[in-house]
């Protein structure tokens, strides 16, 4: 392979890695926000025993 082709491949790999990292960070931030909202909702619950038990049928 020539140097130009290697340079292009390396650049494409770097861009792909940066995009993947950015998407992962977005997913982590969204999950953190969701967990914070769920925690707050549970703290504000009028009946703290609500949802402690549930019936499950298969």
Describe the structure.
- With about 60 residues, the chain is an all-alpha fold.
- About 70% of the residues lie in helices and about 0% in strands.
- It has one helix and no strands.
- The chain has one helix spanning about 5-45.
- Our count of helices gives 1
Helical content (DSSP H or I, runs of 4+): over 70%
The average pLDDT score comes to 87
Annotation, overall tally of beta strands: 0
Tell me the major beta sheet: none
Which outline best applies?
Answer: elongated
Protein name: Motility protein
Organism: Ruminiclostridium cellobioparum subsp. termitidis CT1112
InterPro entries: YjfB_motility (IPR025906)
Gist of the model:
The protein has one helix spanning 3-43. It has 58 residues and is mainly alpha-helical.
List keywords for this structure.
58 residues; mainly alpha; elongated; YjfB_motility; Motility protein
């Amino acid at each position: 392979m020539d140097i130009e082709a290697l340079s292009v491949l390396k650049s494409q790999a770097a861009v792909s890695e940066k995009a993947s990292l950015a998407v992962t960070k977005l997913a982590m931030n969204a999950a953190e926000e969701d967990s914070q909202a769920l925690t707050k909702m549970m703290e504000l619950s009028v009946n703290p025993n609500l949802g402690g038990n549930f019936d499950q049928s298969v």
